[in-house]
Fold this protein.
Amino acid sequence: MSDIKVDGFKASDIIVDLHTAFDGFTDAERQAQVKKTKGIFELKITNDDKKEAVWTIDLKKNGVILKGLASPKADVTLIMSDDTFSQLASGKMDGQKAFLTGKLKARGNIMLATKLAAVLQMAKAKAKL
């Protein structure tokens, strides 16, 4: 778990919680999430010190979260600040609003990006159980 943590990022704690929630899935739950999402998300997060951290959420094959660039290539790359990611994960900001105001940039399959909120909420609910 600590291998995905990056110091100096609020997003890191959220990613660790997401990773923990994924680890708590049964194989059937994991496969259901993969089947529902069918994509690889690459998150490029920049903190206040202008340092960048990259995480990959693979919901195309394995249902895992990794630190670093996506391999194979991500279906969608999402680029945002640490604050924006924290607000998206907490539900304080809507992904569409973030995108339209330029706080969130997306490369690749933009329609897949809309599924990230559901992934974050699902993991948030799982973590509370």
About this structure: The chain has a mean pLDDT of 90. The helical segments are 10-23, 27-37, 82-90, 95-100, 110-113, 116-128. The first strand starts at residue 39 and ends at 46. The chain is about 45% helix and 25% strand.
